Amino acid sequence: MNIQELKKIGKIECYGEDEKIFQQGEIGDSLFIILKGSVNVVITSSYDGNEILASVIKEGNIFGEMALVSDSRRGATIRTNEETTCLRIGQAKFDTFISQEPSIIVKMLKIMANRYYETIKQSKRNEEITYV
Description:
Number of helices: 4
Largest sheet: 4 strands, antiparallel
Radius of gyration: 15 Å
Structural class: alpha+beta
Strand order of the largest sheet: 1-8-3-6
Number of strands: 8
Order of helices and strands: HEEEEEEHEEHH
């Protein structure tokens, strides 16, 4: 399935610079594909309430998928770096999509695994900075 086909099941949304797309802790009901622009993934520390930049996600990548596949709340806040255009795909459309295209699950698992490892590396770097 290509992006044109995905556009048929999703909704295009445009955001300004430094605009919040969703907040850590919210219930997730959709995933996003960045068509243009980039976003910051920001995690609020439960220890001291400070915000930590976990990563930057760029054009052509997805975010928000974890809440759909795990039935969990949003694990981070997503904020745009610049004017950003996303394709938003809701839970019901996503469920239909993966039932018709099960190979997408393998691709998503790879994305999620890579993000998990990147988050661990970033956490270790943050610990090193804290204890220096």
